[in-house]
Specification:
Layout lengths: L1 H29 L1 H4 L7 H6 L7 H4 L3 H10 L13 H16 L1
Length: about 100
């Protein structure tokens, strides 16, 4: 039983790491140019009105609101609903939350 629990915990940890890595890769490919590596906004992004993920305005938004912004776009930000799967968008929301807490 202990072996099964240990294997389950190990699998879960590796799955979470894999998901975080995938989200980081998505962020790097789709978001970093405007939102910056740390989520505070690049020079270009700030000129376009990209929000700082550390700000209370962003952090108070629900996961559904953040997911909708990614999917539908907002302001000058493009829509990603055709190029990202729902699970990818959900992973990005989790990643954005983590960036905002750093």
């Amino acid at each position: 039983m202990a072996v099964a629990l240990s294997l389950s915990a190990s699998w879960l940890a590796s799955s979470l790491t894999f998901a975080q890595t995938d989200a980081a890769k998505l962020y790097q490919g789709k978001c970093v140019a405007c939102h910056g590596a740390d989520g505070s906004g690049s020079a270009i992004g700030k000129n376009l009105g990209a929000h700082d993920f550390h700000s209370p305005d962003v952090q108070k938004q629900s996961d559904a609101e953040l997911a909708e912004a990614i999917a539908k776009g907002r302001g000058k930000m493009p829509s990603y609903e055709k190029s990202l799967k729902a699970d990818d968008i959900k992973a990005l929301v989790t990643f954005l939350r983590a960036l905002g807490r750093q």
